[in-house]
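Q&A log
Question type: sequence-to-structure
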Amino acid sequence: MTAYRIFFRDDQNRICGREDFDADNDTTAVCIGQTLQDACSDTCETFELWNGQRIIKAPGTSVGHAELNERHQEIVLHTEEVIRHSTWLIAESHRLVDLVDGKKR
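Response status: OK
Response body:
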């Protein structure tokens, strides 16, 4: 597993959130990043994904949450929870709150 850092950016390109997660490779990290950005899409417009000092280029097409395997979905769920309980602006995303609260039931 490799460590990645995602930066969420709002409609004015300001950082509104940041979180770290592990993934097997760049492709999986992009899929996880796209899923996380989608979960917060009412608060953030885009995201940047980094592996150390290297930025990862994300393709224009998005990958659905259902296309991630079970282990990757667990990474997404855990990271959504961490973001939700962070002090970043993105933690107030109504979409994220609904997703996290709905998965706790």
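Response note: Residues 21 and 79 are 7 Å apart (CA to CA).
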